[in-house]
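Researcher: Sequence recovery benchmark, item below. Answer with residues only.
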């Protein structure tokens, strides 16, 4: 089992590697509520969410190819290795931020590309970050307005 300090170190390194804000990673992890070794699901589409960042199993084919392992091995690593899970979560978040063209949109897309669902999720993550003192309310409101102005 990984300690909280070790997981925090993994998160900081992953945030730096994939150039995503660690505060957002903390917010997502809090909303997801996952933990090392956890498997949640099945979701309506038959997928599962794994580990602290609740990484969806739809990412496994790409991870299998990258890691050169079979499905069962990739699944176990993603579910049971907290550091790998956080790193994959940061990698996904970085992709989604670039895809959306904004941090707020990337947070939304991390959860769902469906506008209503994703934006509700992003608002929850931002609210957690505010409550934890990781961002100021005025910053969150400005980012939210900027995201909606693009739509």
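Model:
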């Amino acid at each position: 089992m990984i300690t909280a300090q070790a997981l925090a170190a993994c998160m900081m390194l992953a945030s730096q590697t994939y150039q995503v804000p660690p505060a957002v990673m903390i917010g997502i992890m809090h909303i997801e509520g996952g933990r090392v070794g956890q498997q949640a699901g099945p979701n309506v589409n038959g997928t599962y969410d794994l580990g602290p960042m609740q990484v969806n199993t739809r990412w496994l084919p790409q991870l299998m190819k990258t890691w050169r392992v079979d499905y069962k091995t990739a699944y176990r690593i993603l579910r049971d290795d907290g550091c790998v899970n956080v790193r994959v979560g940061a990698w996904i978040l970085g992709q989604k931020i670039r895809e959306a063209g904004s941090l707020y949109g990337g947070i939304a897309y991390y959860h769902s590309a469906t506008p209503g669902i994703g934006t509700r999720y992003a608002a929850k993550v931002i609210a957690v970050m505010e409550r934890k003192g990781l961002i100021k309310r005025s910053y969150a409101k400005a980012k939210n307005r900027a995201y909606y102005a693009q739509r």
